[in-house]
Each structure stands twice: as C-alpha cells, then as structure tokens.
Write a structure and sequence with these properties.
It is a single chain. The chain is mainly β. It is about 5% helix and about 40% strand. The longest helix has 5 residues, at about 40-45. It is globular, with a radius of gyration of 16 Å. The structure holds nickel (II) ion.
Length: about 150
C-alpha cells in the first residue's frame, strides 16, 4: 500500500501537469470524480530493482496487471487454473517448456496456458508486464524463496 511519496517525475508530462504521473488505483466507481490517469510503466519500473518480485500496477476486472524484472532462471512451475500473459517491455525472455524453448523479444508477448509447466529465463535483465487473474502466485504450484504471497502495489 505504499504509494511512494518520493516520486519525482514532476513536470515531465507532455501537458505540463506535474501531477500527471500520479496514477493510482481508481477509487469510487461511478463517482464522476477523478479521471483515470495514464500509468507510466517506466516510472513504475524505476521504483524497484529486485528480480522475480512482481508489483501490481493496475486491476482490470478480476485480473491484475503486474510489472516484474527477471534475470537468469526462475523455477519450473505451472498454474492449475490461470493463464498468464507476459509482455516483454525490455530485453529478451526465454520461456522454457518441457517441449522446447520459446524466445520472446522486446515488444512481443506470450500467453502460457493454465496447466502448462514453464520456466521463465531472463537473458540478461528483462522487464515484463504480466496480466493474470488476481491472486495468481508467481511460482504457481511451487513454493520457494522467491514465492511472493502478496505483491506490493505501486
Ligand atoms: Ni507462471
């Protein structure tokens, strides 16, 4: 729930609105209040450096949009009932499946179907945006040191 008071991207908005980067979770459905705001992925990515530690940046119906940074090998796992979308924002993601590897380049995305074992590998550092049902665990059916039970919202 940390909103990060130290955000200092002030004045970078094209329209000169210093508050432009303040995209947060919309509050009050149908209140007719605040406009939805653009979410600057680069600004959000600048808020953390850890690998394999997804952050939530938005909610869409019952799905969440997350940002994560990968480097090296993660852990083989699958998700019993969730498909996972990975959009590569920067770098090269190698998604390993038992049947072979798929290389996902910058600007490309891949959907891993539920139930399919996969091992994400960052070839160097990779920045990824994920879309998956709320509560999807990063390590799926596996628990290890990199399991994040409650991703931080940024
Ligand atoms: Ni997964």
């Amino acid at each position: 729930m940390t909103a990060g008071p130290g955000r200092s991207a002030g004045g970078r908005g094209r329209d000169g609105d210093p508050d432009r980067s303040g995209a947060e979770r919309p509050s009050g459905r149908g209140s007719g209040g605040a406009l939805p705001r653009p979410i600057r992925l680069a600004d959000k990515l600048a808020l953390f450096t850890e690998h394999w530690s997804p952050r939530i940046v938005a909610d869409v119906n019952d799905h969440q949009v997350k940002l994560s940074k990968f480097e090296g090998e993660f852990v083989w796992h699958s998700h019993e009932s969730e498909d996972e979308l990975f959009l590569v924002l920067k770098g090269v993601l190698r998604m390993r499946f038992r049947a072979g590897d798929v290389v996902v380049g910058e600007g490309e995305m891949i959907v891993v179907p539920r139930g399919v074992e996969h091992l994400p590998v960052g070839e160097g550092e990779v920045h990824v945006m994920l879309v998956e049902p709320r509560g999807t665990l990063n390590t799926g059916d596996v628990r290890d040191a990199r399991t994040v039970q409650e991703p931080e919202r940024i």
